[in-house]
Amino acid sequence: MSVAAESGRRASARRRLSPRLIGIGLTVLVVAAILLSTTYKKGDVKTTASGQKAFDPASYGTDTFPKAVAALEKNAVPLPELLAALRKDQAAASEQYGHRAGNSPYAFATKGEGVAGKTEANLMEIKVPGVPKSTRVSLQVGPALNGTSIRDAVGFIKFGQFTNQVEYADAATALNQQVKANVLKANPPAGLAGKKVSFLGAFTLITPTVVTITPVRLEASA
């Protein structure tokens, strides 16, 4: 084969291989860029599609519950005093003592002492001195704890702190779960019936004659 023919063959081969080599080179560069920009996290850390850390209700409850208890303790109004103010002027008392999001009902921090009754349908009725007999006061004691009273009454938890309504609702549930784990487990309601108890908690106002409190502290009084 002549020198000219051989040179032509090599040039033709280079023309055929160049696009393929270019493609391989670009692929290698893309893969390298992805590897360099990827942050690897532990398998137990969940992330959203955008790579942000996902909301973890359990961790939120553990971290926030002590702060919630402190806020409720600081702002709690004795239940007889609070109910008297609500009966006198519900709008004014709600503005003074309560918290709410948007047009939702007001939630209140309260505390008191009374004699515990039997538990029925997740509620333990409690007779609190100074509260009218026409008013039924109950403590949520599970096993199911419903509502958003703790979340709403503390004052520092706002909807804007969460990505969506689901996370906002999960935050309330997480705090209720902490009540089950840290309050009710240590003080089974069955063992409190007939005893004088003290409580600290929150309730959402539906009517001043039916008060259902979610306790963040509950114990038999001395």
Write the layout of secondary structure elements.
Elements: H1 3-37, H2 57-75, E1 77-78, H3 79-88, H4 90-97, E2 98-99, E3 107-120, E4 123-127, E5 136-140, H5 149-153, H6 165-184, E6 196-204, E7 210-220
Parallel strand pairs: 1-3, 5-7
Antiparallel strand pairs: 2-3, 3-4, 3-6, 4-5, 6-7
Helix pairs in contact: 2-6, 3-4
Give a brief rundown of this model.
The protein is built from six helices and seven strands. With 222 residues, it is of the alpha+beta class.
CATH hierarchy class name of the largest domain: Mainly Beta
Q: What strand order characterises the main sheet?
A: 3-4-5-7-6
What is the helix fraction of residues, given as a range? Answer: 40-55%
Distance between the termini: 111 Å
Radius of gyration: 31 Å
List segments where confidence is low: pLDDT < 50 over at least 5 consecutive residues: 30-43
CATH superfamily of the largest domain: Envelope glycoprotein gp160, DUF2291, alpha/beta domain
How many separate helices?
Answer: 6
Q: Would you give the CATH topology of the largest domain?
A: OB fold (Dihydrolipoamide Acetyltransferase, E2P)
Overall shape:
globular
Total discrete domains:
2
Q: How many E strands?
A: 7
Q: In terms of structural class, how would the helical and strand content be classed?
A: alpha+beta
Give the DSSP E fraction (strand runs of 2 or more residues): 15-25%
CATH architecture of the largest domain: Beta Barrel
Strand and helix order: HHEHHEEEEHHEE
Question: What integer is the average pLDDT?
Answer: 84
Sheet bearing the most strands, described? 5 strands, mixed, barrel
